[in-house]
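Deviation from plan, reported transparently: iron/sulfur cluster complex.
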Amino acid sequence: MPLFAAFGPALDRSLPGRASAASRFPTVPMPSLDWNEDVARETAHLYERIKAVVPAVEWPFFAPYVKAINALKQERGAVILAHNYQTPEIYNCVADFVGDSLQLAREAAKTKADVIVQCGVHFMAETAKILNPDKTVLIPDRRAGCSLAQSITGDDVRLLRERFPGVPVVTYVNTSADVKAESDICCTSSNAREVVESLGSDKVIFLPDEYLARYVASQTDVKIIAWKGHCEVHERFTADELRSYRESDPAIEIIAHPECPPDVLAEADFTGSTAHMIDWVRKRRPRRVIMVTECSMADNVQAELPDVQFVRPCNLCPHMKRITLPKILDSLVHMREEVVVDPRIAAKARRAVERMIHLKS
Ligand code: SF4
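Because the crystal trials were delayed, the predicted structure below was used instead.
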């Protein structure tokens, strides 16, 4: 079964009567990918940003792609959005905007660029398309999915509404457009409690992350009806491994993402979204810290804060790691893979996403 089969009928289908991005934009030749003195000189300032986490021996491979992508995105009128879980050479060297899902959704809503290249997973690219129906949204690898997004469909939401009539539905942005379209409002891990409480209801259906739902329930008096979706990356962390880190260094700080299981969060000194975790480290400057989340985020913060020692119980997101420099360049050269959302579903989903964005701003 293809990876995106569970996402629902609106995704990844070309809409009748609409030409593909590849035919709407002029073709361009593949740029040179030679490593030479000119490339070394022109990209030296970018390598400075990541030298703490990317060995010098790897830069001659990355640099020609970085140079070519930065030139081509200008030619295409494109902007690159990169999630905090992208690798350092993407996050630091070709992205125009970086952040968590909420920050990227806000940037997608604001951008004046004609083309958005989403360096993240498919639901993020879909969110960008929902907010920009007239723009071209590309994802360098359409197989970049998400276990949470795959855990639920629009039909599931409709059944839940029948079972709990009148109860508002909050969906995490880690869902397909079809699921967002059935929701009252979206949320991210940055604003989940605020969104839940904004509805003025004593009960909400919160989908699809069970652990985030439990965390929100621990922070509010609103009764939460949850779904059993899990992030395949965060559910791999265990309380035992965190306790053993703490035993070997009692002064170590542990900060965790709320997609982790409750017994893992119980071991943490701080729980927050990726953006809140980064802010916490920037402000507190701990001597040693464990970021209990996807592994690349520690590399990205380490590049910015070389004086902090990051201990990495490394769990990688296989979907985020499908995005690479060669695929980003391929995407800009050939204008693929274009993200398409059925306009009727996009219009319904947009209400839920914009309600969230306007709530915070
Ligand atoms: S880290 Fe988890 S929630 Fe994020 S994209 Fe990967 S599977 Fe989905």
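Residues 1-14 have pLDDT under 50 and may be disordered. We consider this an acceptable substitute for the interim report.
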